[in-house]
Amino acid sequence: xxxxxxxxxxxxxxxxxxxxxxxxxxxxxxxxxxxxxxxxxxxxxxxxxxxxxxxxxxxxxxxxxxxxxxxxxxxxxxxxxxxxxxxxxxxxxxxxxxxxxxxxxxxxxxxxxxxxxxxxxxxxxxxxxxxxxxxxxxxxxxxxxxxxxxxxxxxxxxxxxxxxxxxxxxxxxxxxxxxxxxxxxxxxxxxxxxxxxxxxxxxxxxxxxxxxxxxxxxxxxxxxxxxxxxxxxxxxxxxxxxxxxxxxxxx
Length: 251
Prior knowledge:
Strand order of the largest sheet: 6-5-2-3-8
Largest sheet: 5 strands, mixed
Strand content: 5-15%
Radius of gyration: 24 Å
Number of strands: 8
Distance between the termini: 47 Å
Number of helices: 10
Helix content: 40-55%
Structural class: alpha/beta
């Protein structure tokens, strides 16, 4: 009787596992960019512990279901994280728009909290001051973009402020994206390439994907202080064990 009961439990467990697996269906997708055809990169399903490569024309296939989190990484474009919806999984070809790497934008994001010692009473009033001689010696700048609020040159201070205002829009989404990018950049800047390739045994094209994988864990944001470098190293070493278990599925 006990043997029959045990067999029944095993069968029910197997059916449950199979049911969970079958709930994920092939997701046919394509990564696109308006300026450049993306021909390589990685796509990882964090929830399913699977990943695949981006092939010619940006096409990829991966098993997924709604609410799964996909990570997109590559050398030519900025990493991106997407949580799938019912609509995404129902599309015949799921399209993902990716931005090309932009060094200037990355610098703005990394140093977004940069503080400049202000003059008494504020510096913007001085920046906006204009004298008659300036009009004669400062011709109109037709090369740099201007919304005509800056008549005689490019006001980088104001542009920086405008960028910060844009980053504050849709705070829930933007803050999450910036936080992931900040972690990836911090981790790359504070550890040598040998740490990733030799100590962790990662391939060069896996480093970005691994760091994005780590950034999805809230624990990663708790070790970004200067005196917590060893804690962050220990976190990544342990996280690498899980990353190594991710199944690689070729197209």
